[in-house]
Amino acid sequence: MPSGETCKKSAIALKPLTYRKQIFSTIPRWLEGKRQDDEAEDLWRIYDNLYDLHGFINHHPGGKFWLQQTKGMDITEAFETHHIRAVPQALLDKYFVRKASKPRNYILTLEENGFYRTLKRRVGAQLDEMDYSPRRRTYLYHLALLAASVILSLISTRLDSMLVEALTGLLIVWQAVAAHNYFHQRDNWQMYSFNLTLMNFADWRISHALSHHIYTNSLYDLEMTLPEPYLCWIPSKEVATKTWRIISIFLQPVVYALLFFASFSQRVFRSIVNKNELYWHDIIGFSLPALMWLCSPLSAAEVLLKWCRIIMFASFIFSLISFNGAHHVSDNYHDGDALPSQLDWGLYQLTTITDRSDIKGNHFWALTHFGDHILHHFFPTLDHGMLSQLYPILQSTLEEVNGSEPRELSFVQHIIEQNKQLLRMEPNPRGHF
After folding, report:
1. Do 260 and 365 belong to one domain?
2. Of 23, 220, 330, 381, which sees the most CB atoms within 10 A?
3. Are 181 and 253 in a shared domain?
4. Are residue 59 and residue 134 in the same domain, yes or no?
5. pLDDT tens profile 275-332
6. Average pLDDT score over residue span 129-155
7. Tens digit of pLDDT for each residue in 316-356?
8. For the chain, how many structural domains are there in total?
9. Is residue 149 part of a domain?
10. Where is the Cytochrome b5 heme-binding domain (predicted)?
């Protein structure tokens, strides 16, 4: 069983994490805890300055979402990654309130001549020369997958076939991962289609865009900590014993299949006993079974059973893709391992990501399987189909810094490595770079 204790101090932060005082991680607890840890004095912190960004909404790619969710937080890294071209200082000065009274909680750096900001300047200078036609193809891919998901779900009500149900689940996942392409942009209709999985895009925008993308593989990364205690990727005896880690290897398929149901059920339960965590667009998750029932001769009970199987297939496939997609390679940095010698945020990101070699350069597979992952973390607002154009800039900048190359593995190798990481209890003593 899990040891009953949890690591509460992240290597990339100066103070213990408030939200880790709870046994189970939740998104609301993470938001509340981060506001306490960041001490941004009910404003928005960027580096050592505090801003009132209410008037900045029209200048930020994330729009109202970022404004609502990040008040009282340090948003330095999120601000940098969501503005490829530097924001004019005169514009920021309009919203400046005062200097922060305390140092930043996070030790990762974004120096002007450091790796990440150098890379960003070079990419920003090339934006006008890039081919933007892949954005149209991304849109059509997502639209086709969404339509195919609905059509095949209706076909499944006419055929007593688990294969058709599994294919329907696969299409739901592919369109959901494609919808993730739009999470880092202003509110758009594509994001709502993610809710067909029973998960909610508003929650995932927080756990993915504000947490995972910024503090990857650290204790601040909700995508690494939410599956605890069932799946524990942190190499520490405080989180899980060796016996429990072995059990978790065999528990994975169950966790995968039940992830979507568990996520929704937990939010319903917490909404009943505590503060409401449900949104009006949660009802989108039930539009598919409603349509299946209206358009088929099956009874409501038969449709519900069939839909539950489809969602279980979808949950398993989504978990298989996402948990084995980029981050949980045993040689990747996980909180507790030795940090890189250079604390540049971009170089830190490179220690936490190993790309998928078998889908590199393929627009469709990269879009539906979290491909080109390093570049997506660096430039999340860019359409996924455009990222492959940035590899020459990434590689030349890396060569100047340390002569290294982005790491890559096949999907099968990622699965093997992810299981090795589940079993790993000792921190890696060697830091990359």
Report:
1. yes
2. 220
3. yes
4. no
5. 899 999 999 999 999 999 999 999 999 999 999 999 999 999 999 999 999 999 999 9
6. 97
7. 999 999 999 999 999 999 999 999 888 999 999 999 999 99
8. 2
9. yes
10. 32-101
In this structure, the answer to whether residues 197 and 294 fall within a common structural domain is yes
| Domain identity same for 55 and 143 | no
List pLDDT tens digits, range 224-265.
999 988 999 999 888 889 999 999 999 999 999 999 999 999
What is the residue range of 10's domain? 6-127
In a domain, 1, yes or no: no
